TrEMBL record:
Domain Plant heme peroxidase family profile per the UniProt entry, residue ranges: 18-315
Biological source species: Lupinus angustifolius (Narrow-leaved blue lupine)
Keyword Heme: yes
Role this protein plays: Removal of H(2)O(2), oxidation of toxic reductants, biosynthesis and degradation of lignin, suberization, auxin catabolism, response to environmental stresses such as wounding, pathogen attack and oxidative stress. These functions might be dependent on each isozyme/isoform in each plant tissue.
Top-level taxon in the UniProt lineage: Eukaryota
Gene Ontology molecular function: heme binding; lactoperoxidase activity; metal ion binding
Disulfide feature: 28-108, 61-66, 114-311, 193-225
Protein name: Peroxidase
GO-annotated biological processes: hydrogen peroxide catabolic process; response to oxidative stress
Site location (Transition state stabilizer): 55
EC nos: 1.11.1.7
Binding site for heme b: 186
Amino acid sequence: MPIFLFFFLNIALVTSSHLEPGFYLNTCPEAESIVRDVMKKALNQEPRSLASVMRFQFHDCFVNGCDASMLLDDTPNMLGEKLALSNINSLRSYEVIDDVKEALEKVCPGVVSCADIIIMASRDAVALTGGPDWEVRLGRLDSLIASQEDSNDIMPSPRSNATSLINLFHKYNLSVKDLVALSGSHSLGQGRCFSIMFRLYNQSGTGLPDPEINQIYREQLNKVCPHEVDQNVTVDLDATPLIFDNQYFKDLVAGRGFLNSDQTLYTFPETRELVRLYSRDQDEFFNAFVEGMLKMGDLQSDQPGEVRRNCRVSNACPANNLLFGFE
Ligand code: HEM
Ligand SMILES: *[C@@H]1O[C@H](CO)[C@@H](O)[C@H](O)[C@H]1NC(C)=O
Ligand SMILES: *[C@@H]1O[C@H](CO)[C@@H](O)[C@H](O)[C@H]1NC(C)=O
Ligand SMILES: *[C@@H]1O[C@H](CO)[C@@H](O)[C@H](O)[C@H]1NC(C)=O
Ligand SMILES: *[C@@H]1O[C@H](CO)[C@@H](O)[C@H](O)[C@H]1NC(C)=O
């Protein structure tokens, strides 16, 4: 027990860290190019996986800061975030992060945190699919624990409307502009029928579809997601799901938003003008998106941290540390 305590205190010194560009310049100069290379491979192997990895930044940073808590597997003593409401049967491509970590551990073991990997990989996903490229601030630590309950309490439902999303983002000091721009991440990737069944067949308990859905688009969705469908069937989030562009906003203006939370950004007056602006001006969208990603990436945990050796397991976990002689 004393050995355990000593070890635990030793690794858990820092609570909040100073983030800066080029944080690994001396300790792991190749870090950023290694991450980008693995992301390029992922793009070739399964193009959608870039969208799936980019989504991690949102689901990580909103739940107790950007600390890679969402990557921890459940243990007998801890219910992690992987099975939380917004993540179960939905978050995917965890193995891409494993591949990045493995490549980094080969070159500079124990140096680059999983939390920073999420930030770099998300940026690379956008840059490699036609979106903007930008410099990220690094130096985060990985959490020792995860919280399924916190994820359940925090992460927004696809049923959310713009007003409730504005309020949620406000809690993180993220503006209406940040909300609309960051929602433009749905320029990439897919969602499940599960996330829109209520919209198609029983919006707000009316027994009717959401009237804001474009008629032709709704007929298409009805075909892919009929009443009796396997609700894991997936549908593109915009008309160009492999390209990071402002098509998402054009689709919203045309009533072709996939999620209720997407379409409401156009139907609610608080966010409509920004959607219009980004639908017309891709550069404005890209600039606002980068700003939003940087702000979201600065959300910090106030809990102790470490640099995990395996992104799925905290270092103190016995399974990962037999050599330290405690259990
Ligand atoms: C504004 C509130 C948001 C809500 C309510 C929301 C909700 C969702 C939902 C319901 C899905 C589909 C999940 C499924 O059906 O399995 C999804 C997918 C996705 N989300 Fe969000 N999201 C939001 C913001 C964000 C942000 C800020 C990002 C990243 C910066 C993001 C990135 C993504 C990506 C890339 C996908 C597609 C993933 C894939 O293809 O695997 N989302 N989101
Ligand atoms: C938006 O959603 C919130 C939370 O579900 C709800 O209380 C509110 O009535 C909704 N606003 C509108 C205008 O529909
Ligand atoms: C938001 O900003 C306020 C004032 O600067 C700060 O006290 C608070 O911690 C910030 N909240 C978050 C979640 O970063
Ligand atoms: C629609 O939802 C309401 C309440 O959410 C429910 O009472 C009703 O049975 C549903 N209608 C249909 C047709 O599923
Ligand atoms: C989706 O697939 C998973 C895993 O196969 C299954 O457990 C789940 O019930 C399915 N979800 C829906 C909404 O059909």
